[in-house]
Design a protein that fits this description.
Ribosomal Protein L25, Chain P, 2 domains, Alpha/beta knot, alpha/beta, 13 strands
Amino acid sequence: MEREDRAPVGTFYAPGAWRERVELDEGAAHHAQVKRLAVGHIVRLSSGDGRRAIGAIVVLLKRRLVVEIDTTSIEDVTAPARVDLWAPIGDRDRMLMLAEKSVELGVSSWRPVVYGRSRSVSLRGEGETFREKLRLRMISALEQCGSAWLPELHHDRTLDVALAADAVSREGDRLLLDAEGESIGEVMHALDVPVRLALGPEGGLEEEERVQFIRAGWRTVSLGGNVLRFETAGIAALAIVRSHLR
């Protein structure tokens, strides 16, 4: 493929095997039109599982987008140090905000947990329909930030089930955000991967849930004295952890 040495003007999610020409879905074609792209424009493709490439748009119709890849540009991007987020089932919009920023901060997996106080939230984000909406928000964030990695998206679990499954592996550090815990900065100098990071829903954890975490070997860490919304706490903690792990 011959092209000028121009920077890409957008990134598109393109999972699966790549040939010299990659045809993207109707949503990608719509996205390209909204961005006022045209045939000949240079774009980046991201597989979501570690591959990126540069290519040029060769077909752009209402329901069709085809990109011709510069095969010399294909790169295998090393996955960042593993960070698994145990996200609370809570308000849908707040969960979507947290999911978007989680992709930008390089979260490896998203594990939604149902807590006692999750059930009192109206319009909470749960079930397969919401899971698909969450996936699409994550893809949008992937395209916005140009990452090569999309988080693994797991199904909703109760805390009992999540902790039982996690007990199989004893590797890495487990951090529970808790106002009474030690300063999160104090544990960063000796952090082991993979890191699991958990936070409670609106209203916080019930005491028995907190005890369950501690009995399972989780360390409680604090972001300070202020009460934070769960999406704010999650974003802040992820940024701190990622800045130390890279």
